[in-house]
Amino acid sequence: MQTDPVINYLRALEALRSGVPNRDAVKVLGSNQSEVEKLFKQKLSAAKSEAQLGKQEPGLLISGDFGTGKSHLLEYLEHIAVSDNFVCSRVVVSKETPLFDPGKMFQAAIDTAVVPGISGQVIQEIALRLRPNTQEFASLYQWANSAKSGLSPIFPATLLLHERLNNDPELIDQITGFWSGERLAINRIRQGVKQVDSAGVFTLKPVKLKELALQRVLFASYLILAAGYSGWILLVDEVELIGRYSQLQRGKSYAELARWLGQVQGESYPGLLAVAAITKDFGLAVLQQKSDRDLLGPKLRSKGTDEYMTTAARAETGMRIIERSALELKPPDQTTLQHTYDRLKEIHGGAYGWTPPEIPPFGTSLTRRMRSYVRRWVNEWDLRRLYPGTDLTTDEQEVRPTYDDDADLEVPSEPGDEPGDAV
Question: pTM of the entire structure?
Fold first, then answer.
């Protein structure tokens, strides 16, 4: 059923007023970042090829000032990816979803995932597309049972049960819930394994939650491919929030950024392609002025453990990506501004059944953000429609992000370092 175009226009305008892009806004405006769009499409093609070889295509980091359209661009890239049969997840870094916590990142990715052509609980719906008698399923099962997969035996055991015990819907639901990030008692898995006469095949032990989160990411990547999708796209917004973490948590976040972007040597998530967005001034304001580039690696290594040694190397990789590899968004030129203005005028008129008046233009500026242009046009048309004939002026105030440490973002202790009796 098609939605009334007027409803789509109203939804788009509401999103543009608030500065938070949605699918309707992206659909009517498109994107003016043609170079990033072209590179992203090349990455999608490469991700498919690399997945067949068991490799991960390196991701992209885009940068831009506040209000330049990073979130809008990510929304647009999601549309492209889903159209190319990719499962797509958008994750916004926040207090609830800290970048340094792979478990919460995975959960957010599952919760926000969009699957081409279907709706509902993502992993459950994807699992329904598995066909045990196909080569794709055989490859998944063979990989999950191989030592090189790096998975706990819990995953091949649950995969076997999902195939064999389809007459036990409660267990199947628990298994797909486990693949999605929920807990599942090991004894429940053992009971199921006995039912299919495979009790001696799997040695099932609890797994640390952090390790389990990464294994879930890996398993989900292969599961998506086995179900016939092109791969899994992860779009990570507002990475700059890590600038407000404590120094230690910033270090872990840089390390995780390198991991998600496929830049960690010896670790790969085939089929997964990540695109992250960060503010343009992060390198200067945090890596330099907070001395992360010079001090963070030595501080992590001073902890003296193998884990911190590894984190230090990966954190340095993440910081190099931010400093050297970020793709800077292009500011809007006059042609882009005129096209956007004309399109917005058409949308506003279609939404409210009127002819919006012309708004005196202001020229392009390196300091003026696309969001500023858009919100000014929409707000002035709103006011002129509601208060015709009134002399109006618009005042603007620039808002810039802060990188001051925020104690509210601190996590007292990182969960997941201790195993339990459930996974």
Answer: 0.88
